[in-house]
Amino acid sequence: MNINKVLTFLFFHFIFNFLITSAQICSNSFCRRTEPTIRFPFRLENLQPSTCGYPGFDLFCDAFNQTLIELPNSGRFRVQSIDYESQNVWLNDPDHCLPRRLLQLNLSTTPFNAYFHQDFTLFNCSAFDYARYRYDPIGCMSGENYTVLASSSETAIRFLESRCSMIAAVAVPVQWRFFEPVMTSDLADDIRLTWGSPRCGQCEERRGRCGLRSVNSTEIECRNAARHGLPRMAQYAIFIGMGLPGFLLLIGFLYLICIREHNSRRGRHPVMEFSVVVVPHSTTTISGLDGSTIESYPKTVLGESCRLSKPENNTCSICLSEYMPKETLRSIPECQHCFHAECIDEWLRLNPTCPVCRNSPMSTPS
Ligand SMILES: *[C@@H]1O[C@H](CO)[C@@H](O)[C@H](O)[C@H]1NC(C)=O
Ligand SMILES: *[C@@H]1O[C@H](CO)[C@@H](O)[C@H](O)[C@H]1NC(C)=O
Ligand SMILES: *[C@@H]1O[C@H](CO)[C@@H](O)[C@H](O)[C@H]1NC(C)=O
Ligand SMILES: *[C@@H]1O[C@H](CO)[C@@H](O)[C@H](O)[C@H]1NC(C)=O
Ligand SMILES: *[C@@H]1O[C@H](CO)[C@@H](O)[C@H](O)[C@H]1NC(C)=O
Question: Taking every annotated instance into account, which residue ranges of this chain make up the domain RING-type (predicted)?
């Protein structure tokens, strides 16, 4: 074989490969400049060919040039943002009523998963003065004569059960794990989901271009990724300059969390464990205390000395309102927990235990 033939072969080989590859190159796209940039594994249905995306990741633009995704069984969601490196996507409801959509959300047939779930119970309360009780109403689900509320706190749920009708208990995908149950939420925060496959995060990190290996396969490949990152000296410099303080901060943060966990275990908020879906108790089994027992518990008008169990705790944990001067409080003798008299009286008529600690030695009426 002479050198000319070899060169010609190499030339055509190169051209052929170039054409094959460029046929599969997919460019970034977006619905509007302010909308998220779309690239593999996502694709915009009418702007990018199907080989530019991964099954289950098809997006489209609506009439307002918003980026939407259609999740099987759960309907359309607005894509608020995408982080390709950490493989995260943030969704919300295009009609601005996410809680209503959460009632029907089912991710089992999608490529997406939630990081954390927190169970919330939604209530429909008629003639409920939520402002007095400091609950956040879900505005888009409430009407003129009723208010819809959501909570993950067992105490709040039991309080609402006595006044409102339960709509549903739903597992809400939340961005962060809450260390204490949420008393009240309008559930309007974007939901943050992740995907396990295809794994393009590392390719993205190395500034590569992730894509399907060939037209009909679901195998992926990473093109043009930086083979080596920064020079070694620069890596050391970055590690010492940023990594070390970051590490120390992390240790500090973990330490704080531990302390917090430890304190809450020690019984400051024994009721406030992680959320639990509370199945409403049937009302026939509820037996609270009788009026004379309740009346025998000490009552104080604020401004005088009410011995609160924690001096810094100046909120009634039943209605969530702060105590105001001249309000009447009642404390439970066995555990010294204080509440508004009207709140605790109503509570005790339904439940014979303290709403905060519950392990109450109170005598039940004979
Ligand atoms: C959406 O984008 C198209 C093309 O970029 C533009 O012509 C149209 O005015 C946009 N519509 C809205 C509602 O912004
Ligand atoms: C979600 O959908 C799947 C399949 O359609 C079904 O089996 C599952 O029970 C659903 N999960 C919930 C919580 O509704
Ligand atoms: C709440 O209850 C009212 C009647 O009291 C009803 O008209 C309304 O549709 C209910 N709302 C929800 C979201 O269940
Ligand atoms: C709400 O209640 C008021 C007073 O009872 C009544 O006049 C009004 O029609 C009710 N509104 C709705 C939407 O049912
Ligand atoms: C991909 O699959 C389709 C249908 O399954 C088939 O018609 C097509 O020829 C395949 N293309 C390649 C390049 O294998």
Answer: 316-358
Tell me, what DSSP letter sits at residue 127? Answer: S
Q: Give the domain range for residue 331.
A: 229-267+287-366
Pocket test for ligand 1, best of 65, 66, 68 (most atoms within 8 A of CB): 65
pTM score, two decimals?
A: 0.63
The residues near 231 (Cβ < 8 Å, ≥ 6 apart) are none
Q: What is the mean pLDDT of each run of 10 residues along the chain (366 residues)?
A: 59 51 70 94 91 93 95 95 94 95 94 91 83 83 91 89 92 79 87 92 91 86 71 52 66 67 45 37 58 82 53 72 79 80 84 76 48
Question: Cα(144) to centroid of ligand 3, in Å?
Answer: 10
In three-state secondary structure terms, 364 is coil
How far apart, in whole angstroms, are the C-alpha atoms of residue 226 and residue 179? 40
Q: Which among 128, 142, 145 is the best mutation to test ligand 4's pocket, defined by most ligand atoms within 8 Å of the CB?
A: 145
User: Which of 142, 171, 195 is the last residue before a domain boundary?
Assistant: 195
For ligand 2, say whether the CB of 106 is within 6 Å of any of its atoms. Answer: yes
Judgement on whether residues 242 and 327 belong to the same structural domain of the protein: yes
- Phi then psi for residue 98, to 5 deg, are -60, -40
